[in-house]
Amino acid sequence: MLKEEVITAVEQGRFVIYAVARVDEALELLTGLPAGARDQHGLFPENTVNGMAVARLETIARVAVKKRGGARHGAPE
């Protein structure tokens, strides 16, 4: 059960509770952006939370490869 102070805050409009079934729903609520679903090629649309996350991870991976001066760990050279 929720604490009484949380219930009071909700009633006063100082706090909101959202029920979500999937993480993507929470991402959309928190960011105001669509989460994004994979297309037929397994890619996320660019201007979505998931698309931006994948793009950032790819950037980080490229920097890591550059710093090591070679292929990605586990990738064929």
Low-confidence stretches: none
- Biggest sheet features: none
Radius of gyration: 20 Å
User: Structural class, judged by helices and strands?
Assistant: mainly alpha
> How far is it from the N-terminal to the C-terminal residue, by CA?
55 Å
The percentage of residues in β strands lies in under 5%
Number of strands: 0
What share of residues is helical? 40-55%
Succession of helices and strands: HHH
What does the overall shape look like?
elongated
In DSSP terms, counting alpha (H) and pi (I) runs of 4 or more, how many helices?
Answer: 3
**Average pLDDT:** 92
Question: What report would you give on this structure?
Answer:
This protein has three helices and no strands. It is elongated. The mean pLDDT is 92. It has 77 residues and is mainly alpha-helical.
List keywords for this structure.
3 helices; 77 residues; 48% helix; single chain; mainly alpha
Brief summary:
The chain is an all-alpha fold and 77 residues long.
How are the elements arranged and paired?
Elements: H1 4-11, H2 23-31, H3 49-68
